[in-house]
Amino acid sequence: MTSTNHRLSQILGHLGDIYQYMGIEERFRALAYTKAARTIDNLKDDITIYIKNNTLEDIPGIGESIAEKIIEFVHTGKIRKYEELKKKVPLELLDLMSVSGFGPQSLRQIHSELNITTRAQLIKALEDGRISKLKRFGAKKVENMMRGLKLQKQSQERILWWQAKEIGDRIKAELGQLKEVRKIEVAGSIRRGKETVGDIDILVSCAPAHRKKVIQAFTLLSNRKMVIAKGETRASILINDFDRQVDLRVINAQEWGAALLYFTGSKEHNVYLRTLAKQEELKINEYGVFRIKDGHKVAGSSEEEIYRVFGFQYIPPELREMNGEFELAAKGKIPALIELGEMKGDMQMHSTWSDGAMDIEALARHVMEHYPYEYIVLTDHSVSSRIAGGKDEKSFRKQFVEIDRVNQKLGRQLIRKGVEVDILPDGSLDLKDDLLVEMDWVCASIHSGFAHDNTSRLVKACQHPLVNCIGHPSGRLIGKREAYGVDWKKLFSVAARTGTAIEINAQPDRMDLSDTLARQAREAGVMLTISTDSHSAENFSFMKCGTTVARRAGCEASDVLNTKSWKEVEAFVKRKRKKQNRKP
Questions:
Q1: At the N or C end, where does the chain have fewer CB atoms within 10 A?
Q2: What is the Rg, in whole angstroms, of the alpha carbon atoms belonging to the chain?
Q3: Average of per-residue pLDDT across 276-292
Q4: 471 touches 443 (CB < 8 A)
Q5: Does pLDDT of 583 surpass 80?
Q6: Which of 301, 334, 367 is the C-terminal boundary of a domain?
Q7: Quick one: 239 and 188 in the same domain?
């Protein structure tokens, strides 16, 4: 992405936030600018090329009005409308619109009635009781707001796994170019796949004579902000991305396995190994496994070697959380965890027909070019999701025609017809059965009523014969919105009985189901799906997030529906319809 595209995307995104803040009457403008920002953010070529070729309005989601503002930005470096509107709204408060307990209407009322314009002022007004005196701000509402702010603060102390992984991978690639580096790995929470990460741990193996050069290169990384510490075998820096601390350990080749095991963790997993070692008159640390009586080293060059010393099958990093992994490893029953390469399709994504940044053909061609999928399921939003550009029955029938046209042009049945249908407050769906029955795949999701227990809504959706999957089931947004209440045991029981799949939504700020709940679902006999919920080209890579959640849940390929062929997916759909006495 070019710097021009990046700056333009930021401004268009801010305009979308401003229009969202301004109220429901501006929801279509808010959606238009948000979609345009995503689209510009995803362009490979500089936006000026489109202006030069007079093809700006050929970009999906760029209409005449937005095109004019893009041209204005390229020529002047500013957008007058943005400069005008940002003076009329409290910009600092707009960042809170996605935080649980807050929203455009609440923030507008607080701003207008208390003249509050900053986050600090808002927190003070919550603490001194001024906000609780406002109309529609009862004790429960204020409590939710305080909890939302606390959740956001906690999230700022840690970053999402995907963000941390990207940082770790970039550092690994940069340091890995040194010929002196024999092995390099990202360890810690990133390697285990934890949904959030604090500091980033990098492990390097090299000859002792080359340590100084490796450490020097680390402290001069392109994204470093400052050097915190620098020694003979370790160093710590602060990088510009999220002001994260990155710690480097440089070790000898014969210590690689012990160090990788030690610095991967988890702490509880390592403590258990140390306890076992003592019982067998051994000592284990980051340098190896040693006999206590004579100091003889018995293992350390590989993790497999170390586990073997204690009579265990190799335990993958994602399972090292003291959740029964040692019992399985002792019996040789560690599951063959699902691999990214086993995915045969993606079950949820959005196009410009709702809130996606790519038209259907561009989306399909991107997938064909970059992913070996047999199928993808297009699941644009249904009518109730207005802010997401939800479509009615007539629009979906038009979309069917477009999907058929694109598939014919591609020469294969890549795109399958689907929908992310809204589950209404009473548990019913917001599209009629005579349309849903024509869908290849129906994913039902909740997009409202997050403050309530939603068990009955989800259970009723599972019982609907045309619902194939429940999307992002807990509704959480990591660091922004807590999960709503659900009786998970009941939901998983109903899902298993009715033949309804439950989604692992791979968006980095969702990872929903969580690994813990995905494990419970699997153990209850529920079939899982992993979906990227892609809204732009770059989102398709999030499948790695989803498979990581599934691995932490102990899932094998057989536990995930979209590791199977489309013929098997169709059979899954037909079984439910037959079971529920409803045939197409």
A1: C
A2: 26
A3: 95
A4: yes
A5: no
A6: 334
A7: yes
Beta strand pairing call for 200-205 and 234-239: unpaired
Only one residue has tokens 């953010």, namely 41
Q: What gap in Å lies between CA 47 and CA 73, rounded to an integer?
A: 10
Cβ pair 473, 486 in contact under 8 A: yes
Instruction: Decide if 230 contacts 211 (C-beta within 8 A).
Output: no
- Helix 3-22, helix 64-76: angle, nearest 10: 130
Its domain, for residue 455, covers: 340-579
Asked, for residue 584, whether it belongs to a domain, the answer is: no
Residue reference for tokens 């536990």: 559
Do 428 and 481 belong together in one domain?
Answer: yes
- What is the number of other CB atoms lying within 10 angstroms of the CB of residue 233? 14
- CA distances (Å), origin 154, targets 5, 148, 241, 478, 571: 31, 10, 17, 10, 44
Give, for 490, the enclosing helix (H) or strand (E): helix 488-498
Does residue 31 lie within any of the structural domains?
A: yes
Element (H or E) spanning 154, and its range? helix 139-157
Nearest in space to 355 (alpha carbons), one of 386, 377, 376:
386
SS (H, E, C) 73-128: HHHHCCCHHHHHHCCCCCHHHHCCCCCCCCCHHHHHHHHHHHCCCCHHHHHHHHHC
Q: Look up residue 437 and give its amino acid.
A: V
Q: Name the token pair of 566.
A: 């489309």
Other residues' Cβ atoms within 10 Å of the Cβ of residue 135: 7
- 350 plus 485 within the same structural domain: yes
pLDDT bucket at 223, cuts 50 / 70 / 90: confident
Q: How far is it, in rounded angstroms, from Cα 215 to Cα 218?
A: 5
Give the containing element (helix H, strand E) for 566.
Answer: helix 566-579
Q: Which residues pair with 196 in a beta bridge?
A: 160
Do 132 and 211 fall into the same domain? Answer: no
Classify each residue of 142-173 as buried b or exposed e, where b means 16 or more C-beta atoms within 10 Å of its C-beta. bebbeebbebbeebeebbbbbbbbbbbeebbe
Q: For residue 23, what pLDDT is reported?
A: 87
Whether residue 439 sits in one domain with residue 362: yes
**What distance in Å separates the CA atoms of residue 484 and residue 498, rounded to the nearest whole number?**
23
Torsion sign (Cα): 314, 541, 562, 389: positive
Collapsing DSSP to helix, strand or coil, 582 comes out as coil
Pick from 216, 290, 214: which is nearest to 251 by CA? 214
Count of structural domains within the chain: 4
- The residue count of the chain comes to 584
Q: Sign of dihedral through CA atoms 173, 175, 181, 183?
A: negative
Q: What is the pLDDT of residues 288-329, one digit of tens each?
A: 999 999 999 999 999 999 999 999 999 999 999 999 999 999
CB within 8 Å of 106: residues ≥ 6 apart:
136, 137, 141, 145
CB burial of residue 17 (10 Å; 0-12, 13-18, 19+): buried
